[in-house]
Amino acid sequence: MIKRLGPYKAPGPDGIPNAMLIWNADLIVPYLGPLYRVTFKLGIYPDNWRESTMVVLRKPGKSDYSLPIAHRPVALLNTIGKVLSACVAEDLTSAAEEHGLLPSNHFGCRPGRTTMDSLHYVTKYVKDAWRRKEVVSALFLDIKNTFPSVAIDRLAHDMRSRGVPREYTDWITRKVTDLMDTNQSHCHSPRDWTRGAHYRALPFSYTMPT
Predict the structure, then answer these.
(1) What is each CA distance from 135 to 83, 157, 176, 197, in whole angstroms?
(2) What residues contact residue 46 under an 8 Å CB cut-off, 6+ apart?
(3) Nearest-5° angle of CA 148, CA 151, CA 157?
(4) For residues 175 and 80, is the Cβ–Cβ distance under 8 A?
(5) What is the pLDDT of residues 119-166, one digit of tens each?
(6) What is the mean pLDDT of the chain?
(7) What angle do CA 33, 37, 43 make, to 5 degrees?
């Protein structure tokens, strides 16, 4: 998992660059493994792993940068916590595929499935209906601010109802409680838990109707 990190991405408040983990993985991994496992065993998530540095970037090609929508916030997460999040995401992804926890026609955040695959699926569905002389009606929704608005309790309930072990849902709940962003000052944002997270969209998949 460490080898998949971008070596030159900006670090979070801990100041640890990804390159340090990549180049010293053989020395660090024997210590990271027990450290990560204890977060599950003892039911804890270190407070400093919840911290992130918020950087606001200008979106290119915008005509008026006085508008908030012309900017994009980027959360720089602490490196140690980011690696653990990636490991959890890998486990959840494998479980979803191995045990069929998501609908067969769900494409988001799934390995081997792309936007083009979903477009081909919809196109084939429509053309097959036309060949049967049927009419197809479609409703497309663009839901604004979906991830920051996730109800954590409901998300955990839906994941457990699909068979995700409680140790994972409890870990996610602990992780996203009292997140802290650092810019000019500190601000608590317990709901907006997905910024910069490796697995931000995958858990949300469990809240989608089957």
Answers:
(1) 48, 37, 45, 41
(2) 39, 81
(3) 135
(4) no
(5) 999 999 999 999 999 999 988 877 666 666 677 888 888 889 888 899
(6) 81
(7) 155
